[in-house]
Predict the structure.
Amino acid sequence: MLETFFNFVVGLIGGIAVGLQSPIAGTMSQRVGGAASSFIVHVSGALFSGLLLLLRGGENIRAWRSLPWYMLVSGAFGVILYLTLTHTLPRVGTTTAATLLIVGQLLIGVLTDHFGWFGLPLRPLDLTRGVALLLLLAGAWLLLR
């Protein structure tokens, strides 16, 4: 029970981080351009990650050579995420941009779970999860209309 609560809190912190970064990113992209703001954000993220890596004793960084190609290029998805947010957020607002982001995450999440892509545990789409997904999509539709 405590582990589940902790996991939820960590997930909420991630959501808050995205919620804070998104409007900042949208504003910054209007000042310096989308690619420039993406570069600034990713350099600062790399520096922060490097500091965390040092504080954690390097973890298992040397194992990077054995990672599959799709793990090595996954940073490109971060750039795509950033550029799409900096494009949509100033044009449609924070709530709409966040809703579209969440809907995209839900859809790919269902596929990833159902097929067990990327070595993740298999969680087939069943009736209960299907109904829950439809309710979430209905909520998103209500936010977007």
Summary: Residues 22 and 85 are 7 Å apart (CA to CA).
